[in-house]
Amino acid sequence: MFLTHLESTEDSALCYPADGLATLCPKTGRPLFARYDLEAAGRALSREAYAARPRRLWSLAELLPLADPTQAVDLGEGGTPLLKLPRLGSSLGLTDLWAKDEGQNPTGSFKARGMAVAVSMAKALGARALAVPSAGNAGGALAAYGARAGLPVQLAMPTDVPAANRLEAELHGARVELIDGTIADCGKWIGARKEAEGWFDLSTLKEPYRVEGKKTMGYELALDLEWTLPDVILYPTGGGTGLVGMWKAFEEMIALGWLPEDVQLPRMVVVQAAGCAPMVDAWDAGADVASVPSDPHTVASGLRVPTPIGDRWMLRVLRESGGTAVAVPDEALIAGTVRVSREEGMFFAPEAGALVAALPILLERGDVRADERIVLFNTGTGLKYPECFPLA
Ligand SMILES: *Cc1c(COP(=O)(O)O)cnc(C)c1O
Question: Which of 111, 168, 333, 383 has the most ligand 1 atoms within 8 A of CB, as the residue to mutate?
């Protein structure tokens, strides 16, 4: 086990031991991330050895925080395919467009990666019950991984949560409190009760290990592309765990020597729904924190995150990567989902349909070039959102 300590994402001098259930940095109130002895981890696991293992999240065990990988709460997550999108690419005038299909994860979304690692760690560190506020897939995934771990789960979900997410949560035995409000209100509901009830709160970035699960997308992407990286990554951004997680993976791979020192890192692009775009607004304003949008709304439930706690971290990644941010209206993200479904046979979640809608805007703005290698993260399966797709 190569996990050494937890470090503030705001100030690398603020370090904490990683031997108990961890939450936010007590000094800054901002997220912590996990640090490893990468030199030793690199001796234990070469990139060739990783490539020779089965395509699974836990094949990266040496670079994950769980001390004993045989104790992993595992539903077969990770190892999703990276697929070329030739027909959609050519209809958009792009020659090298790809999608990483995270919809093929357990529970139909990439939330499985984060919850697999976070629930494994919470269980190993002695958590007795788990809780999360969720506008959709995070709740379903926690319910499934909680059931797998044998731990009770309490969720708080907005009343307009997609029916599939409520169904899966209840089916897996979670208790679901419906709240007339946004995920921020759900977070307050959990926050007000968690101490008395003994729930460990797995909210996005409020504990350090969901990001560790999500970072595996970055490692897999490099593996899929034979240890190269794309020019541009488009990411449908709510709380931003995958965005910051992949950036962490790229930095770790350079430190491990799995990628060359002078590798050109991808430009990271945040895509949000116009009805709830705090990160796009902050980027456009040149701010280094996000402010709360008024009346946050979008049918893409995973993007309905008005107060992302990782705002400063995400903005730093956008700046360091030379990336950008773009918002698209709901009609466009639904049209984007329909388009990739027809042209490529892949049923994206509406969150990822937003990426399809963003491409012509990014081309027009000169933020991407037609011949660049572009990867879209299809973060979930569209099958869980029947209410978003009136029969055409
Ligand atoms: C949660 C979710 C997102 C947003 O992910 P973050 O890591 O919170 O930014 C995007 N798409 C889908 C399908 C989701 O479930």
Answer: 111
